[in-house]
Amino acid sequence: YLYNAGANVWSVRERDVNSAEIIVNNDVVASGYSETGTWTVGSIAGYGGTYRVATASAIENATAVFIPNVTQSGLYWVSVRCIAGANRATDVSFTIIHSGDTSRVKINQKIHSDTWVYAGQFYFTAGSLNKIILSNQSLEAGQAIIADAVRLGGGIGAQADCVNTSQGFSN
């Protein structure tokens, strides 16, 4: 209920019961990542190494394309990852092409750094053209747009959700 009302809700459990986990990372071109337009390397570490930065513009002139290799058709939760910051856009557009359909979502990149941010659940067909396209088109021209990684599915714990782990308590 809270999520549908617009609240940021952080579940303590993995949302997706799909045992598959597909990660497309900007540092691993073979994972299905590509770019158009001008992108630069971020100033600190991103997921799996680096992240990429484009400048927000009223007219799209840069995209980051994440093409997951979906080997099993089904419903997948889609999550995106970025390094948040005060100079980030709050209306970052992701176009999700899945099973012949197209969905669009907006993600606020000023908040929720170093964690997977839920974008929605979509049906993906194995062997078809599935992709997630991040655009630099924004109402906040001049702000930074971050491309780091996209995850489909929840997996079975192969990758940590957050880089900030708890330390054990000792007396």
Q: How would you describe what is shown here?
A:
With 171 residues, the chain is mostly beta strands. It is built from no helices and twelve strands. It has strands at residues 22-25, 33-36, 40-41, 52-55, 63-66, 74-81, 92-98, 101-107, 117-124, 131-135, 144-147, 149-152. The strands form three sheets. The protein has a five-stranded antiparallel beta sheet, with no helix packed on it. A four-stranded antiparallel beta sheet has the order 1-12-6-9, with no helix packed on it. A three-stranded antiparallel beta sheet has the order 3-4-11, with no helix packed on it. A hairpin with a 2-residue loop joins strand 7 and strand 8. The model is unreliable at 164-171 (pLDDT under 50).
Major β-sheet profile:
5 strands, antiparallel
Instruction: Give the proportion of residues in helices.
Output: under 10%
- Oligomeric organization of the protein chains: single chain
Per DSSP, what share of the residues sits in E-state strands of 2 or more residues? 35-45%
| Secondary-structure content class | mainly beta
The rounded distance between the terminal residues' Cα atoms is 40 Å
> What does the radius of gyration come to?
16 Å
Task: Outline the fold blueprint.
Layout lengths: L21 E4 L7 E4 L3 E2 L10 E4 L7 E4 L7 E8 L10 E7 L2 E7 L9 E8 L6 E5 L8 E4 L1 E4 L19
Antiparallel strand pairs: 1-12, 2-5, 3-4, 4-11, 5-10, 6-9, 6-12, 7-8, 7-10
Q: What features would you highlight for this structure?
A:
12 strands; five-stranded antiparallel beta sheet; globular; mainly beta; disordered C terminus; single chain
